[in-house]
Amino acid sequence: MVHFSYKVASSILGLLLWGAVFATAQESRKPPAIDFKSQRERMVETQIRARGIADKKVLAAMGRVERHRFVPEPYRTAAYQDHPLPIGAGQTISQPYIVALMTELLDLQENEKILEIGTGSGYQAAVLAEMGAEVYTIEIVPSLAASAGALLREMGYKNIRVRTGDGYRGWPEAAPFDGIVVTAAPDHVPEPLLQQLKEGGRLVIPVGTGVQQLKKITKRRGKIEITNVIPVRFVPLTGSGAGK
User: Fold this and answer.
1) The domain containing residue 193 runs over which residues?
2) Residue whose C-alpha is closest to residue 201's, from 181, 183, 185
3) Is residue 29 part of a domain?
4) What is the pLDDT of residues 110-142, one digit of tens each?
5) Catalytic-role residue among 38, 94, 121, 147
């Protein structure tokens, strides 16, 4: 039989108590868990619905997609704030309201085929997919295309195809599209995108340099109807022909 002296037992008990106190102190220093769900609900109500976005499908999709997962770790606490955020390679994830506005302007119907130019983080593609669209999305920066594709697969989206390439040229072998959304600004409307738009299709695109004009273009009977929506500021569209 092994015997412990009172002093040894007291020392062991003291160490155990000190360890418990230290662990509790360390735990108390940890920042509280962020309630992203509540932040997302508040974003939808105060930044999107309050500004006039009324499409229930858009509001529901914005409420479901976990925006913070598309934001780099250093900016994650700001994921639901009312401004764009950097995502690397000189690109940004758009302000939540702008994502909602461009999505609403597409006037999506169930199972429509949508082309997105400028995948970025993958957030806009996820919102479109949540609304039941079949999404084809192109990103010119290989690292962003790879990370967005990996995240979208991890999140279980099976109705999104991601390609690395020149968005100015569109995705001709998958055309025509019911809708096209462009999340970077050329200085003119790319002709290949107009050609790949289905009859009755909608193209939502920022056009210009510096402060741009967000436009909704609808193809009717082979002609285009253009509506100027609001001034916006996007990163420039790059690729062959984008600045010509």
Assistant:
1) 97-232
2) 181
3) no
4) 899 999 999 999 999 999 999 999 999 999 999
5) 94
